[in-house]
């Protein structure tokens, strides 16, 4: 018996997701109403996936008031690295930031803290001289005023285009935290997706308390590099916040909706003032 | 049997010719030819090694005959007792730690070891440390602090190991903690980059009062291959990346990241490991002599301030800083 083959069905092209009102969840692929998603703090209402958000948005979510510091610090091109300045300019236009971290004094509930928030949308949140310097200054500000220090991490690591100077920002921030630590300062490190490499291998790992957002990629080496090195499949959930919790590398995994409350409670606990 | 790099070829040719002629040096005219070739060899050495490209230095730093930590221990110390293990998880053979005596000076020595033979390299994991290695290193450094012995670290690693176990056991935390604790250690620390200074994996034992590099060592935030692969999607462009990243000893001295350059014998450290070791020894002992004069508080303060000054930024002239 001979069947005539039916005309091959054309694969249905994925529905184009318009830039405007709707967007697709990176994880569960459900189509989400943008406004709805934003109201939900950029957490997918269907699957709980935490979208990456810019630093300014994070500050809105976490604080009840914010005064920004060191707005006049901007990146140089110390190695004369080719195309670096164009890349910086593009990201400065895109994000409205001069570099990958916003620092300042913040009110969180009844507490005043020194707050730094990294921005993954600026050069992948990479740490160069400006990030290192702003973190250092923020730590000193916290130390001089006896404020707790909170840094929200979002970074692929050190910034390649500033070469060895970027690497030295790891030592710079860690050395400053050593002083802060000796002074009895409280440091809460919040890890969002992703917090990796040079940032994770310096200040982000040195929190007295380390909080991670669900699903955040956290670690030293990137998963692709590891896979290329070991030539084996990586276990499911590898380097995600829950994996890091299981392996003892973070204290708690807290969804974005509860992050502020959790931070306030931790600040309450360590505070000697009555609120 | 020595191994040669591409750019060393003209040298090898002459060296081989000299060896041949030495067998018949009593014959007429040979001695003159030998003298001429020897002079030519010296000239070539100077010419080639005076204008090495950054990539050529990378190749020298990775030269299979380059002296490693175990060689330096043999060449530099009168006595060495190796100490093992981090007392938490295991012993990492990618880093050697122990009690060393150098010209009567009792010091703590920490050095990455790549391994010479294939079997050694596998055991040593090519000098790529796991978290337990960083923790072992710090544990032994703290012995130096407790008993007032200075610390010498020898850096030679492609980087911290990127593997599943390393991540599970907190590679990032281990390095971060070392950075903070080395910035607080109340005893002199001198670090020497002897070969490859592979990013965070190198810095994890590299926070020091004085950091030196051997003349042909390199120290970088990312391997030239990695940088080329990311920026230009082509690892073959590593030589360009090596130049762009400014990774040579001279570059780092100009960027004020290191305190000095230790000369290598002509042709590179592997041409004369003993001379290289002697050069390192002299610089390190001089540094310890000076650093030991400082009270611990001042030592730690100066070390921290040194790192706190690092970086290059633009400061616009507006008044909105809090301090």
Description:
The complex is a heterodimer of chains A (275) and B (323). The model of chain A has no long low-confidence stretch (mean pLDDT 93). In chain A, α4 packs parallel to α5. Chain A has helices spanning 34-39, 55-62, 84-95, 129-145, 163-182, 197-200, 223-230, 241-246, 256-270, and strands at residues 22-24, 31-33, 65-68, 73-75, 101-108, 111-118, 149-155, 187-196, 209-212, 218-219, 252-253. In chain A, a hairpin with a 2-residue loop joins β5 (101-108) and β6 (111-118). Chain A starts with 21 loop residues before the first strand and ends in a 5-residue tail after the last helix. Chain A has two domains: 12-51, no CATH class; 52-270, Alpha-Beta Complex (2-enoyl-CoA Hydratase, Chain A, domain 1). In chain A, the strands form two sheets. In chain A, strands 3, 5, 6, 7, 8, 9, 10 and 11 form an eight-stranded mixed beta sheet that branches. In chain A, 49% of the residues are buried. Chain A is globular, with a radius of gyration of 21 Å. With 275 residues, chain A is an alpha/beta fold. In chain B, α9 links the parallel β5 (189-198) and β6 (210-214). The longest helix of chain B is centred in the first third of the chain and has 21 residues, at 30-50. The termini of chain B are far apart. Chain B is built from 14 helices and nine strands. With 323 residues, chain B is of the alpha/beta class. Chain B has two domains: 6-51; 58-308, 2-enoyl-CoA Hydratase, Chain A, domain 1 (Alpha-Beta Complex). In chain B, strands 1, 2, 3, 4, 5, 6, 7 and 8 form an eight-stranded mixed beta sheet that branches. Chain B is 47% helix and 16% strand. Chain B is globular, with a radius of gyration of 22 Å. The mean pLDDT of chain B is 94. In chain B, 48% of the residues are buried. In chain B, α4 crosses α13. β4 (73-75) of chain A pairs antiparallel with β9 (313-315) of chain B, so a sheet runs across the interface.
Overview in brief:
The complex is a heterodimer of chains A (275) and B (323). Chain A is of the alpha/beta class and 275 residues long.
